[in-house]
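Chain X:
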Amino acid sequence: MTAIHRRVAVTALLGLLAGRALADANTDEFFRAIRQDNDAAVRSLLARGFNPNTKDEKGTPGLIVALQEGALRVASLLIDSPRLVPETRNAADESPLMMAALKGHVELVRRLIARDADVNKPGWTPLHYAATGGHLDIMRLLLEEHAFIDAQSPNGTTPLMMAASYGTPEAVKLLIEAGADIGMRNQKGMSALDFAQRAERQNSVELLQTALRWKLRGGAPRGQW
């Protein structure tokens, strides 16, 4: 290698290192602004060409961090970004739509769906997460958008099971009336009623027991509650 070639190579390497350092600095600034809900700082970064789908060191994209942190101004800004890829997921395969559903942000859920976020996906789904939080408006919206009501997580858990264990009686009732299969069991052999009993959710236990009685009679509880 000639002296000229060595200088060119060194210059290229220095440029690459400087570019990486700048990218790292911008990434740090991006996630710091998210946690502060500083939409002005994020808007400035995006205007300079920063990628709104950038992930932190744990593999979590900025929009999911914003939703987790309650940084709703930044979340709204990122959803509006033309460069946003709504299905950019974290290391646990959670999507922004799932996180918005869990946190109960119905308008952000609506806007993510409008951006073609996936209502249905393998494994855990937005409906599982909405049912976990007992967020009725979001559950209704997802079902209207053809969310699979009996979606199964990797271990066979359904939205109804999550509602029975962690959600509210109203969420349980909504899913039953919408046609959820109350007899399904997960890989551990547990039904929604088992989930409710284990969590000592007596109101949900009674709803599920009533629904099971109706099922045994060959009827349905819709309109009879």
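Chain Y:
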Amino acid sequence: MKKIYGRPKYLKARRFHYCPGCGHSIVHRLLMELMEEMEIADRTIGVAPAGCAVLAYDYMDIDIVESAHGRGPAVATGIKRSVPEAVVFSYQGDGDLAAIGTAESIHASVRGEQIMIVFINNGIYGMTGGQMAPTTLLGMWASTAPKGRDPQREGYTLDLSSLLAQIPGVVYAERVAVNSPKAIRQAKRALKTAIQCQLDREPGLALIEVLSMCPTNWKLNPIQACAYIDEKMSKMFPLKILADRRVKATKKAVANVE
């Protein structure tokens, strides 16, 4: 029987430490599939975050460095400027990118750094016990918002990707999810587009936000967590292209029409 699906070459044969139903493992696999398909593993450098994905280097068989909490875009900036031919990405959760790392994410975007940010949004602090994150939905339970997030008490939900997408230095931004086979295929296409921005030397930063399940801290089973993304999260964070300022891709499209 012909084998049509298996472990990607650059995904290490190790058991994930992630909770059952978590989306991190899916995104790890998608990235390593693209490393193999695009033949860029030997020139790619990742930046791992603090948080649930702190051990990303245990699973991705590429060069990965660890950054201090929230400093992923700054570390990725230094790597890209030092090794401009490298494909550089920062892999971050909502606490890492949208809380302690807000300044780094904004200013890397303002400078138009030619890096990719993979932003995993599960709306909560996963590793430390389910505390409220900047991305926690209104009314959503968290250990630090036991009555549900109230805007008068805890403030409003932060849609950081939409904010960053307004900055001219962001060349491409898309929000996707990994809660269904269809969504996973679109997530892979979005990640490939973001990587291609670096290969084409598009002038700016590429951002892919991934809505990801967190059954443990949402107090849901994995099936319910997948449904929660469709029923709740995607209403606050719509799945769509948020910005597309690619120069070379636009020129190619015009040339094909002509």
